[in-house]
Amino acid sequence: MAYIEVNNISKDFQRKNRDGRQETIHVLDDVSFEINKGEFVCLLGFSGCGKSTLLNIMAGFEQPTTGSVSIDGAVMTKPSPRYVTIFQHYGLLPWRSVKRNVELGLENATYSKAERATIAQQYIDLVGLSGLEHQFPTQLSGGQQQRVAIARGLAVNPDVLFMDEPFGALDPITRNKLQDDLLGIVREQQKTVVFVTHDIEEAVYLADRVIVMQSGPGRIGKIYDVKIQRPRDRNSSGFGLYRKDIYNKLFSIKESNIEYYI
pLDDT over 90 for what percent of the chain? Predict the structure, then answer.
């Protein structure tokens, strides 16, 4: 049995139209797929295709109109500390230092103050922020703030990381560095990751599988197994062919066959 099962998910929202009448917006339509434990899966698509809504349903923040999501055999009905969500906008508390932000998720557990400090330091070191423990978010760069958010998420030792365009606001150099760091961390920590992005190159670089979503309403266009050895070279011919094929799929251009790549 797969670790995460997304079964026939559809999602409708109600809103008022220009005439003030209620209308139904069909955001997701009959979405199904499975994720194995330890996989890194990217949900890729244009803005408005429902990928963030799908992630929120998987993380338990929203309920589907029809269908269900199960993780480790249990149906998701609400958020759980076993499954942490990291957003594009870091969500750090500005009045807390780096260390105190990382400790935040540990405060509801049965850890002593000393234990919280030890765990927080471990993950601060892991994301490369040693020496910045007592800095405040306004004193950090965007990339450093996202590292704090990642450390805070990892500190509670979750089984799954849900990540909603966490590097979208960063410059390309910082983004590429954090992509490498994230891959190293999730493999060392053996985490399952569901990662939302609209960046084709990011998806090909990070993912074991890329789920391409189409709009109107949101549904699966195609699922790609990315059969490129790690570490991946963005300039390799195989990488370029995946990038081109996914681009063509997103823009409804004739697809090529990429199953033979290694």
Answer: 69
Amino acid at 79: P
Cβ count near 83 (within 10 Å): 20
Parallel/antiparallel/unpaired status of strands 66-71 and 74-75: antiparallel
Instruction: Give the lowest-confidence range in 9-13, 15-19, 136-140.
Output: 15-19
Distance CA 87, CA 52 (A): 10
Identity of residue 34: E
Between residues 46 and 207, the one the model is more confident about: 207
Exposed, middle or buried, 190 (CB in 10 Å: 0-12/13-18/19+)?
A: exposed
Structure token digits, residue 70: 């199960």
Confidence category of residue 48, pLDDT binned at 50, 70, 90:
confident
| Percent helix / strand / coil, the chain, rounded to 5 | 35, 25, 40
Q: Distance between CA atoms of 172 and 177, rounded to whole angstroms?
A: 9
Q: Locate the DSSP E strands across the chain.
A: 4-16, 22-35, 40-44, 66-71, 74-75, 83-87, 160-164, 192-197, 209-214, 219-225
Backbone dihedral angles phi then psi of residue 33, each to the nearest 5 degrees: -170, 170
| Residue 4 contacts residue 69 (beta carbons within 8 Å) | yes
- Average pLDDT of the chain is 90
Element (H, E) at 126: helix 113-126
Consecutive H or E run containing 39: none
Q: What are the backbone dihedrals phi and psi of residue 7, each rounded to the nearest 5 degrees, phi first? A: -115, 105
The DSSP bridge partners found for residue 25 are: 13
| 40-44/209-214 β-pairing | parallel
Q: Is the pLDDT of residue 256 over 70?
A: no
